[in-house]
């Protein structure tokens, strides 16, 4: 859940910053002076050997370790979440009354593919 919140915030802030960014004067009014926070850090993601060793036209990432890790992590997170919510190997989820005054933990019966 935390990862989803952080990535959702970063994605929405990047789109917002892109919408309000004014590139007319990059010398006297760079993006960090315009209140940007996410995009300046995103632009540094490709820099590995300081500014001198950075290239935009470099090759694509073909390291299978990164992609296999992301795939396995996604499947594992979905699996743990599904087992937790259904109550199969976990407690279930918190179910409240319509007013949010009382509630209990119970398993739910999801409709996969509905």
What can you tell me about this protein's structure?
With 114 residues, this protein is mostly helical. The chain folds into 2 domains: 1-52, no CATH class; 66-114, no CATH class. Helices cover 41% and strands 7% of the residues. The chain has helices spanning 2-20, 38-42, 64-86, and strands at 93-96, 103-106. It is flat and about 60 Å long.
Question: Number of folding domains?
Answer: 2
Summarize the main sheet. Answer: 2 strands, antiparallel
Q: How many β-strand runs?
A: 2
Q: What is the chain-wise order of helices and strands?
A: HHHEE
Average residue-wise pLDDT: 76
| Protein structure class | mainly alpha
Strand order, biggest sheet? 1-2
Portion in beta strands? 5-15%
Membrane topology: Multi-pass membrane protein
InterPro entries: PS_antenna-like (IPR000932), PS_II_antenna-like_sf (IPR036001)
Pfam families: PSII (PF00421)
Main location: membrane
Question: What's the short version?
Answer:
With 114 residues, the protein is mainly alpha-helical.
Provide key terms for this protein.
single chain, 114 residues, mainly alpha, 2 domains, two-stranded antiparallel sheet, 3 helices, 41% helix, flat
List the helices and strands and how they pair.
Elements: H1 2-20, H2 38-42, H3 64-86, E1 93-96, E2 103-106
Antiparallel strand pairs: 1-2
């Amino acid at each position: 859940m935390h990862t989803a919140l952080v990535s959702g915030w970063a994605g929405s802030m990047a789109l917002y910053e892109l919408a309000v960014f004014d590139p007319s004067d990059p010398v006297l009014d760079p993006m960090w002076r315009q209140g940007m926070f996410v995009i300046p850090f995103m632009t540094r993601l490709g820099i590995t050997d300081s500014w001198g060793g950075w290239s935009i036209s470099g090759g694509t990432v073909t390291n299978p370790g990164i992609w296999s890790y992301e795939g396995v992590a996604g499947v594992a997170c979905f699996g743990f979440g599904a087992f937790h919510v259904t109550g199969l190997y976990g407690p279930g989820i918190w179910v409240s009354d319509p007013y949010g005054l009382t509630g209990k933990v119970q398993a739910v019966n999801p409709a996969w593919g509905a």
